[in-house]
């Protein structure tokens, strides 16, 4: 069946360019009304320009969709409030938040200035908190919401020179781990997308023929599905790029048990190190107390 967003409203941050633009266009083509947020900055977060957000609004209007522009910064608490307010003032609802705005300030850790650390954490990690925080009461009240945070394989696995960026991107996984719990009884689902696409952030890193292939549209299909009523999962990390989609997960190993009435020696730890670090039969968790499998089984049983 066709997946439609008729009657729904989304806020997509950093939607003036690259991946955010593709997400916004895909949602709008499927009937979603969209707040196109983008402060139009340079890749390092400096400067402002209203043109990118306005251009995406124009594109959406050209094919008969509905969108408004917002030029605030996701790193600013009040600006983020105003993004959510813009949706409510214009259309009276908000169903979806895609927190996608991002900048880059790559440096090896010994060269990482405090400002490079703070700016990246502010835009990526605080920029997820601000928009989700302001949208959440609306989602709770209407017992419906969809959240997608733009993470990265840099945070999931590591990429040289990106401690600031990777810390923020891994922090988003921490966020959805909790949002999935806080949103569960209100039908609010939260996911991370770890995309790879040719945008101004990455196009210098790939050969020309790959740039042609790595269109953000490939990622947009997955993000739109995660934003849909039809996607009932929550708390997933999905990797998406041209030609490959898949799931990534933090898993918990089987653990080694011992009698806690005695503290093990350091030598005992050394002896058991292979077993302690084993991931044989490791499982994704649902919160700190149960595996996802246990949670799903209990949920299915309670109907
Ligand atoms: N391109 C990739 O392969 C890739 C890989 C992993 C993760 N990501 C993530 O996906 C997201 C989108 O990246 P992209 O490649 O499309 O980059 P991009 O630079 O093309 O787009 C990012 C947009 O965010 C906007 N922005 C920056 N700071 C902002 C702020 N404070 N408030 C509002 N808007 C702001 C920029 O003006 C820009 O238009 C980013 O979070 C990025 O880290 C991208």
The CATH architecture assignment of the largest domain turns out to be: 3-Layer(aba) Sandwich
User: How many separate domains make up the residues?
Assistant: 2
For this structure, the CATH topology of the largest domain is: Rossmann fold
CATH class of the largest domain: Alpha Beta
Write the SSE topology.
Elements: E1 9-13, H1 18-29, E2 33-37, H2 51-62, E3 67-70, H3 77-91, E4 96-99, H4 114-142, E5 145-150, H5 153-157, H6 163-183, E6 188-196, H7 208-213, H8 216-226, E7 237-241, E8 244-248, E9 251-252, H9 266-276, E10 283-286, E11 290-291, H10 292-302
Parallel strand pairs: 1-2, 1-4, 2-3, 4-5, 5-6, 6-7
Antiparallel strand pairs: 7-8, 9-10, 10-11
Bound molecules: nicotinamide-adenine-dinucleotide.
């Amino acid at each position: 069946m066709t997946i439609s967003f008729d009657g729904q409203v989304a806020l997509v941050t950093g939607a003036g360019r690259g991946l955010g633009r593709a997400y916004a266009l895909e949602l709008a083509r499927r009937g979603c009304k969209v707040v196109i947020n983008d402060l139009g900055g340079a890749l390092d977060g400096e400067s402002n320009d209203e043109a990118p957000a306005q251009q995406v609004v124009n594109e959406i209007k050209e094919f008969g969709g509905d969108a408004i522009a917002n030029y605030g910064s996701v790193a600013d608490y009040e600006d983020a409030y105003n993004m959510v307010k813009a949706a409510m003032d214009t259309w009276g609802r908000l169903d979806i938040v895609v927190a996608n705005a991002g900048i880059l300030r790559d440096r090896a850790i010994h060269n990482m200035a405090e400002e490079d650390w703070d700016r990246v954490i502010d835009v990526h990690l605080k920029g997820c908190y601000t928009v989700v925080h302001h949208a959440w009461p609306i989602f709770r009240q209407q017992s419906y919401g969809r959240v997608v945070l733009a993470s990265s394989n840099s945070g999931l696995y590591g990429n040289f020179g990106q401690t600031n960026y990777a810390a923020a991107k891994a922090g988003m996984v921490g966020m959805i781990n909790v949002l999935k719990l806080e949103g569960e009884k209100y039908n609010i689902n939260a996911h991370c997308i770890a995309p790879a696409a040719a945008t101004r952030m990455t196009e210098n890193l790939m050969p020309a023929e790959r740039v042609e292939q790595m269109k953000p549209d490939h990622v947009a299909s997955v993000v739109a599905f995660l934003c849909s009523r039809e996607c009932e999962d929550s708390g997933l990390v999905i990797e998406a790029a041209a030609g490959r989609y898949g799931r990534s997960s933090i898993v918990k190993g089987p653990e080694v048990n011992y009698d806690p009435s005695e503290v093990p020696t350091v030598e005992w730890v050394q002896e058991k190190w292979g077993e302690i670090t084993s991931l044989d039969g490791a499982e994704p968790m649902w919160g700190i107390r149960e595996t996802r499998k246990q949670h799903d089984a209990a949920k299915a049983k309670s109907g």
